[in-house]
Amino acid sequence: MKNKLTTYDIKFRRKALPKILKLFRQTPKPERTVFPGFLDLPSEIRLLIYRFAFATTYDHILVTVDRDRRASRPIINTDDPNERPTRELRYTRKPSIHLPVALLRTNQQIYCEALPVLYTNTIFSASSNPTSLMYLKDRLSEFARNNIRQIQLCPTSLLSQSFIRERELLSWTVVCAEVANLPGLRQVRISYPNAEMLKDGTVEFHRRRYAKWLGLVRAEKSLVFDVFEGSAEEREECRRQFIDIIQDTDDTLGE
């Protein structure tokens, strides 16, 4: 004889039991939308993002490097070049705008993709001694050195009509040779303090003092002035003189 359900059993089945079963019933979890990571984006889109990140309203960024003369000269007690103290360098960026260079420290892939974009409009220069560029070059990674596109050289110390020190001429020669070995170099800007420094002296004077060593550098060469106060005609005259100075300089290296 079957047992009859009590009133309690009936209420349990109707109300409590469904709630208990629901606890053990697996409910499907809603699907979560997975967004692609930055490196999962197409390389063309990442390149556009890098360009946007480093974009400025200026044609270029001039980074000037110089040895810090305020620092005391280090005492060297060893002949081992690896144990000698490194030179302190000062960097000046013109215009002094913010650039998100921290992006380069994110990871190796972003560094390799973003640095060439940053260097496209970056010009490296030295304020006084051109050999400061060599100290900068030694501190850069090989990848960074290979992506330098523009260099600015200032032959100011060699423009004097009087006697110049042999050390200055040697430094200029070394710098030109080192710059010539930059595989990614596209342009070399030759900077003069003003137009008079270019006009004072014949073409042969400029070639003999510094320009003939520019023949080592195969990149395009252009003329710039720190300060120029003249007409468009005077600027064009300076440009023609500059072309005469650097023309066929590679043929004068053996003279």
Automatic annotation (TrEMBL):
<dbReference type="Pfam" id="PF24864">
    <property type="entry name" value="DUF7730"/>
</dbReference>
<feature type="domain" description="DUF7730">
    <location>
        <begin position="38"/>
        <end position="191"/>
    </location>
</feature>
<dbReference type="InterPro" id="IPR056632">
    <property type="entry name" value="DUF7730"/>
</dbReference>
<protein>
    <recommendedName>
        <fullName>DUF7730 domain-containing protein</fullName>
    </recommendedName>
</protein>
